[in-house]
Amino acid sequence: MDRVRTEASLEQWGILYEAATRIKERKPWEKFWDMDLIGIRYGAEEDTVFFSILGRGGDCYGIVVYEGYEGLNSFLMLTMQERMNLSTQYAMSRQKNLTCYWGNRDELTEKQRKIIKDLGYSYRGKNQWLYFMSFEPGYYPYNMDAAEVQRMSGYLQDLELALQCYEERNKKVDFENGNMFLLTFSGDKKTWNFAEEPLPFTAFQFGNLIITDDELLADLEQVPSCSAILEADIAVMGAKVTDKKYSRPANPSIVLLGDAESGTIIHFEMSEPDDDPVVMLAEIVLNFIFQYGIPKEIRVSNVIAEAALEQICGICGSKLRRIKRLKGLDSFCESMYRFGL
Q1: Per-residue confidence of the chain (341 residues) as pLDDT tens digits?
Q2: Which domains does the chain have, with CATH numbers?
Q3: What is the rounded CA–CA span in Å between residue 63 and residue 58?
Q4: Which of 42, 92, 122, 152 has a CA 20 to 30 Å removed from the CA of 65?
Q5: How far is CA 170 from CA 26, 35, 164, in A?
Q6: Eight-state DSSP code of residue 272
Q7: Which residues of 236-258 are buried (b: 16+ CB within 10 A; e: fewer)?
Q8: Do 212 and 315 contact (CB within 8 A), yes or no?
Q9: What residues have CB less than 8 Å from 328, skipping those under 6 apart?
């Protein structure tokens, strides 16, 4: 269920713009690559906030803030998408972060340009226009709400301190081997400590879907086999869905099941923002099995879909095969892209 959206006041935006403007003066992209993560810890390790600095290559300047382990995991999905054979569209649709960009005027919405004008800022030229975006899984990137603006202001103020500590420390961190530069605050934030520490994990944590319904699992073992060879996948078409029940435009996933030999689409379902597409995929495959029988083989193209179906295939004895390209489903998705569906 979407929370009620509250817009930030001009005063709140002003605090955020001031903090980001001070960060820009330090030019952190001259010291960090986008994979060189800075951590700020306020309490439990799993609540650490991770910062990625954009712009060392000179193309896009910005600061991306990943809150907690969930945020870090979405960062790792993006960095490992090619190795996992995930589409850019899918990886971007599952991002969870708060981002600060210095871009071009035409990248900003009318609302973002108005905030800048009302605050009295004036920007000229390429990669100079400061704006902010919020990324949530299942949604399109959108303007930050009041709570996000306040959190981002605090994060950037603390990042300023972290950057100062890093410069004063004058010692290189071994980012290449999975370490981060970590600033840790005391409970009252009156004292802090900075050090080099290993990241909590350096590979995307996809996690296998585990079904715990004993009755369902017992029924699954009794289903007869069939000769079907299936393709299963989760795709993102980039169809912006605006609805009053959403606090921002949705970016739904499409869960697909097809016949590998004929290319026929057996099932096609669009997710809601709060749906888990991985769970939806498992449910669709289970429905097929109970209706038509255990397929001879199910083909997937990535570890996300594989993790969704591994337990099911293991119990019913269906072969689960990961291949680079799902010809039938990929052809269907390409036609949808072509016709703008």
Answers
A1: 456 789 999 999 999 999 999 999 999 999 999 999 999 999 889 999 999 999 998 778 999 999 999 999 999 999 999 999 999 999 999 999 999 999 999 999 999 999 999 999 999 989 999 999 999 999 999 999 999 999 999 999 999 999 999 999 878 899 999 999 999 988 777 788 999 999 999 999 988 889 899 999 899 989 999 999 999 999 997 888 888 888 899 999 999 999 999 989 999 999 999 899 999 999 999 999 999 999 999 999 999 999 999 999 999 999 999 999 999 888 887 776 665 55
A2: 10-198 (no CATH), 214-338 (3.30.420.10)
A3: 14
A4: 122
A5: 15, 19, 10
A6: P
A7: bbeeeeeeeebbbebbbbbbbbb
A8: no
A9: 231, 258, 259, 260, 262, 263, 264, 265
Residue with tokens 């990929």: 330
Sheet with 319-322, edge to edge strand ranges: 265-270, 253-259, 229-236, 297-300, 319-322
CA–CA distance, 273 with 243 (Å, rounded to integer)? 11
Q: Nearest 5°: phi and psi at 306? A: -60, -45
